[in-house]
Each structure stands twice: as C-alpha cells, then as structure tokens.
Amino acid sequence: MRKTVRTMGWMLCLLAAAVLTGTAKAAPDVSEPSEEENEVIQEEEIEVTEEPEYCEITWMYEDGTVIDVTKAEYGKVPSHANPEKTPTDEYFFEFTVWEPQLREVAGPAEYRAQFRPVKRSYEITWKNDDGSVIDVTKEEYGTVPEHARAEKKPTGDYTYEFAGWDREITAVTGPAEYTARFTAKKIESSSQTTEEDKPTEHQAVNGNTGEAEVKPTQSKVKRTYKITWKYEDGKKIDVTTVEEGAVPKHAAPFMEPTAEYTYEFIGWDRTPAAVTGPATYTAMFRRIKNIYSVSFDPNNGTSVAVLTAEYGDFVKKPEDPVKEGFTFKGWYMDEALSREFNFYDPVTANITVYAKWEEDAKTSTDIPDTTDVSDDPQAAPASGIKTDPVPEGKNDTAPEGKAAPAPETKTEPVSQTAVEPSSGSSAAKIIVVSLAALGAFLLGGAVTVYLRKKA
C-alpha cells in the first residue's frame, strides 16, 4: 500500500515537471526579440539620409546656341543670371524673359533666352573750321542728322558766311564728325577822313553847306539761333528758332510708356540761358515702375481678392477657393482651362485667371433590408437554426382544444474559427501555465503526504 501511494505521489510530481518543461519549450523567450523583430528595430533605428536628386538644365539663346548647363534640385524652380547678347551696328539687345516659363524641376529641361532689340544711337560731333566743337548730338541709327547753321565771328577786315559742311550728311551708321565751312568776305572801306571831319553816329555831312545834318539811325536786325530739344537717347523732340539774348522755352515733352515703366518729365539737363548761339537741351525723366493686377475668377467657388505686383515681380498664391461637391484643381490662364497659371512667372500685364474644379465622386448609401424574415418560409434564420418549411396542403392549425404542434427544427452547429492569441499575450500565458503547473506539483506532494499518513 505504501509503495502504491509513493508511486502515485511521484507520478503527480513528474506530471507537473512535464507540464513545466513542455510549456517552456512551446513558449518563445519573450525577453529576446526574434530575427524579424531585430531587423525591423534596426531599420527604425538607422536614420537614412537621402541625397537630393538633381537634374540637368540647359540655358540657350534663341537660335539654340548653348549659354550654360547647370544642375537644379528636383522639385525646385531653377534660376540663371540674365545673359547678354552681342549687339549689332543697328541694335543692342535687352534680355526680357526665359521661354518656356520657369517651372519646378521634374526632369532635364531646356530654356531659351528672349531679347528685345533696342535701336542704337551714335554721337555726331559738329565742329568749326578751327577744330573747336560747336555741338555734340546723339542720333538714332539710320536717321539723317541735322544741325543749325554754324556761325563765325568777323575778324579784321573780313566777315564769314556759312557755306555748309565739309561733306554730305548721310544716314547714321556709327559715330561721325562734320566740320563747318565758311566763305570770307572783305569789308569795303569808305573814303578816308580826318577825325575832325568824321560825322558823329547820328550826323552826315551836307555837301552844299558843309554843316552836319541829322539823319535817322539805321535799325539793327537781331540775329536768331536754332535751339535743339531732344530725349536722353538723342532722339529729337523739337528744333526752335530764338533771337539772340532771349531765353528759350519749351513745353514739357511726353515720353511713351513701356510695359515696364511710365515716364514723368522732371526738367532739362541744364537751365535754359540767354541765347548767344546754337544750343541743345536734353529732357530728363523719372522712371515709375508699372503696377499690374491679377484677378481671380472662382467659377462659382468662394471669392478670392485681387492681387497686385510691380512689373517683373511675382504674386503669392492665395488660399484655395471652396465649392461644395467639388475639388479645386488649380488656376488657369484661359476660360477653356487649357493653360495652367504658374505663380513663379513674373507679372507683366493685367490678367485674369480661372479656377478649375473636379466633381467629387458620389458614394451610394446602403439601404437596410426591412423584409420580415418570419413572413418568408424559405428564409433561413440568422441564428444558424434551420427551419423546415411546412408542406403545401398540410394544415398547421391545431384542432379545437388542442395545441398546435411545434414546427420541426434542425439545429446545425455554427462553425467557429479558432482565434490565434496575439504575441502580446504570450507572457501572460506562460505565467498562467507556470502557476498551474506549480499548483499541480504542490498538490501532488500534499496528496502523497496525506496518503502516507493514511496508510
């Protein structure tokens, strides 16, 4: 009997040890992560620094000649210094813009410089026959210059009359010089008389009486000179004739505005002075940069305020408008919505841009099934209980005084899918199983001691 009791006690202890050993083998060590977990942890801990991607940008003249090749970061707007174009005899060239419009880099791109031709002006020097400079004017290429007649003061017994320039005046193709030519005329002298015999300025000798008689003074005609008024580029505004000694005057000139500037007259390059000979005055202007507006047509969306910018500047993109049932897709330069407006493009005129919208996809609403299952003998209950339909012709109404028999039902078990315990509950499972095994071990020991005493 004692042997049997001892054997049973040891069997219970061995069973508890086996449970503990099996649990230890079955459950993974939660203190150390698996290889896959280690890889994920390492990937999270390693900070990856990606180098920005660059694309090649080619900058060219209008004819395709390459100016430069640079690299620009993907997603950013490239930039380049304004290029210069070699002038010709007739024109110099002013850079205006790159074509196409500069956009965010999405790959290799090419841009061509656009230039505005500006007609050149050249200095024309007008000289006296002694080499002294009479005047210097600026004349536009292709124009025929003009100048007032040159004057030369009399010397000794001679006066001088202007006879033209040393060569034919031709259309301007570059700097040029013209020298005045004069014809000398000798002053004829009257019969000689002594100082005592000379009449005064207002007297003449009467040949009959020998007495002086008063004669009217000969009037003196004032000389006139040409005054030239011109723009800063040398282009003539006007040529006026002014008497010697008078101060020339001219109305404020008007200068045609450009797309970039409006010009305000502020005066002449020097204060007009009393005329002593031909003179030239140059008009001075202040440049005022033009301001343009960008208007937004929301196409039935919420309104957007008008923005303004100076010529060549940019406008900041406003907040997107809102339209119920639609998604905003950007601003476009035409009502047909074919050319998207780029906010990185410089403003060069008043424009209106138009909102583009895309209608949101309509989602169907699920309508619950309101059919009464109890009224349909073929409908299966949701509980998994299958009900046999009542055969046709069979009266399911109980006779008077008797209860109607219950319909035959067949119960089919509803399959249940085993739920895998999550990895998060592994530690808890090990603790519970370990405690259970320990309890079994202690229970086996207690039973053994009890049976020994009993025996």
Question: What can you see in these coordinates?
Answer:
The protein has about 450 residues and is α+β, with helices and mostly antiparallel strands. It folds into five domains: about 1-30 and about 425-455; about 55-120, Immunoglobulin-like (Sandwich); about 120-150 and about 150-215, Listeria-Bacteroides repeat domain (Immunoglobulin-like, Sandwich); about 225-290, Listeria-Bacteroides repeat domain (Immunoglobulin-like); about 290-360, Sandwich (Immunoglobulin-like), CATH 2.60.40.4270. About 15% of the residues lie in helices and about 30% in strands. It has a four-stranded mixed beta sheet, with no helix packed on it. Strand 5 and strand 6 form a beta hairpin. The N and C termini lie close together (about 5 Å). Mean pLDDT is about 75; it is low at about 190-220, about 380-385, about 390-405 and about 410-425.
Summarize the structure.
The protein has helices spanning 2-26, 35-45, 426-454, and strands at 54-60, 66-73, 91-99, 109-119, 121-127, 133-140, 158-165, 176-186, 203-205, 212-214, 224-230, 236-243, 261-268, 279-289, 291-297, 307-310, 326-332, 351-359, 385-387, 409-411.
What is the end-to-end distance?
Answer: 7 Å
Structural class: alpha+beta
CATH superfamily of the largest domain, called what? Listeria-Bacteroides repeat domain
User: What order do the helices and strands follow?
Assistant: HHEEEEEEEEEEEEEEEEEEEEH
Mean pLDDT: 77
User: What is the CATH class designation of the largest domain?
Assistant: Mainly Beta
Uncertain regions spanning at least 5 consecutive residues: 190-219, 379-387, 390-404, 409-423
- Under the CATH scheme, the architecture of the largest domain is Sandwich
CATH domain fold name of the largest domain: Immunoglobulin-like
Q: DSSP helix count?
A: 3
Give a count of the beta strands, DSSP E runs of length 2 or more: 20
The main pleated sheet reads as: 4 strands, mixed
Shape: rod-shaped
Bin the helical content.
10-25%
What proportion of the residues form beta strands (DSSP E)? Answer: 25-35%
Task: Record the strand order, biggest sheet.
Answer: 2-1-4-3
Tell me the number of structural domains.
Answer: 5
